[in-house]
Amino acid sequence: MTDESSLRSRRGARELIVKALYQWQLADHSESEIRSQFADKPEYGRIDQDYFKDLLGIILNKINFLDAAIGKHADREVKQLDAISRAVLLLSIAELSERRDIPKKVSINEAVELAKRYGPKDCFRFINAVLDRYSKEDHKP
């Protein structure tokens, strides 16, 4: 796999994770139900499936830690966030704290792009600010 296709594959996985977390927030399905539903999507064959499974599992198993991190660095409570902003923050904070192989700048930039694409108007500014504050701390996995 070329670097470019690897990047697209990882970007696609992030996008599906945000969609999966959005659905999880609304329907409260189990991790296995979410994985199964998203594995049936046509785009699933074009993404980094290991990354999708790994990060989705991390997020759903560490949801309390991740929500606490969001709450600490946001100017509002987690329950006040729209589902997309929360999904993007969950993904990005999990990536920043658990995936040391991915540069912080890449994680934050990808989050901002996801927020621009799927989130409410200007939520990307909020996402960027929260992740910038979070990334300045040392986070041990």
Question: Can you give me a brief rundown of this structure?
Answer:
This protein has helices at 3-27, 31-39, 49-61, 63-73, 83-98, 104-118, 123-135.
How would you portray this structure in words?
This protein has 141 residues and is mainly α. It has one domain (3-135): N-utilizing Substance Protein B Homolog, Chain A. The chain is built from 7 helices and no strands. The chain starts with a helix and ends in a 6-residue tail after the last helix. The mean pLDDT is 90.
What CATH architecture label applies?
Orthogonal Bundle
* CATH overall fold name: N-utilizing Substance Protein B Homolog, Chain A
Number of strands: 0
Secondary-structure-based class equals mainly alpha
Any chance you could write out the topology, listing elements then pairs?
Elements: H1 3-27, H2 31-39, H3 49-61, H4 63-73, H5 83-98, H6 104-118, H7 123-135
